Amino acid sequence: MRTIAIIGASLAGLRSAQALRRQGFDGRLVVVGDEVHLPYDRPPLSKDFLLGKVEAVPLADQEDLDALDADWRLGVQATGLLSAHELALSDGTTVAADGFVIATGGIPRTIPNTHVLRTLDDAIKLRDAFVDAQHVGVIGAGFIGAEIASSARALGKEVTVIEALPAPLMRVLGAEMGAACGQLHGDHGSTLITGVNVDSVNVDGGINLADGRHVNADVVVAGVGVRPATDWLAGGPVKVDNGVVCDAGGVTNLKNVVAVGDVANCAGHRAEHWTSATEQAQIATRNLLAGETVATHTNGGYVWSDQYGVRIQFIGRATNDVRVEDGSIEDRKFVATYRDGDNPDDVVGVVAMSNARLFTRLRRNLK
């Protein structure tokens, strides 16, 4: 291959570019990104950035970026894959390439009259909105919503978190561990409302719940998930279904096109995690250069979240058989394992709160 184009200039795109160079690709490398910013780290946006402790955190310094010798096309959107070898951009130009890495990530699901937090520009707008806010409403008690709530409380705001499910993070951690994480909100003075949907959000920020209640809020943030950024691929040669459809090695129905990160539906699974994006990039680029699937990625599902000064870590999958192995939920310091329903001795998932050392040891036992 002489030219490879990477569509997406965030974590997955950058790691793909770095992996290609490490694996010996010395041809032309084009990186297309719809943001004007060079790659930055997203996790701090909901935490230290909102708190004013840091500005944008680069994912690579200038020396490392220079070493990639890439043609950066920033502030430009991909509008279509015209063929297996031609990419159309929003500025009217096209890029001809022998191979493509699709790393366009996800697009936040929105609710009218709310903020979202996905990009640096989103974070800047939200941080500015927090300055004069007294009461912050957060819709969605997933990881991103909980982190925003935690930051708002640290800034001295009154916070109400609204979750449609009976407990936060139920789909990820299960009911018991999700409820344990939800208790952090009350511990630190936030109000958590569960089991009710949001009907609407007023222009001035007030939240109307489906059961008739009204929640006062000056600023409302929606953390209700993302959808894969695949609109630009509609009608093109790459198969799309809840993301870019690819095998366990990130290879799509076109052998010269791979997908990584939040946008990749790898073997029927789409992982929206920082570590997955990094790990997938190594495998997918190797397969791209080989012209076939010579390696596959096993999704470990590792995710971490910092909320109210507590670090939550999870890996694997949640089951109904969950056992606290050390510490206690009441102390907000514990490690629990999830067991396989058919083989109770098999650990298939681990979750921890403020116990990184034991979490690291137990995760080695995952089946």
From TrEMBL:
Key words, A-Z: FAD, Flavoprotein, Oxidoreductase
Positions of the Reductase C-terminal domain: 302-364
Pfam families linked: Pyr_redox_2 (PF07992), Reductase_C (PF14759)
Record's keyword annotation contains Oxidoreductase: yes
Coiled-coil parts of chain: none
Recorded superkingdom: Bacteria
Residues of the FAD/NAD(P)-binding domain: 3-281
Cofactors required: FAD
Gene3D superfamilies recorded: 3.30.390.30, FAD/NAD(P)-binding domain
Secretion signal span: none
Record keyword Oxidoreductase present: yes
InterPro entries, sorted: FAD-oxidoreductase/Apoptosis (IPR050446), FAD/NAD-bd_sf (IPR036188), FAD/NAD-binding_dom (IPR023753), FAD/NAD-linked_Rdtase_dimer_sf (IPR016156), Reductase_C (IPR028202)
Name recorded for this polypeptide: FAD-dependent oxidoreductase
Taxonomic lineage of the native organism: Bacteria, Bacillati, Actinomycetota, Actinomycetes, Pseudonocardiales
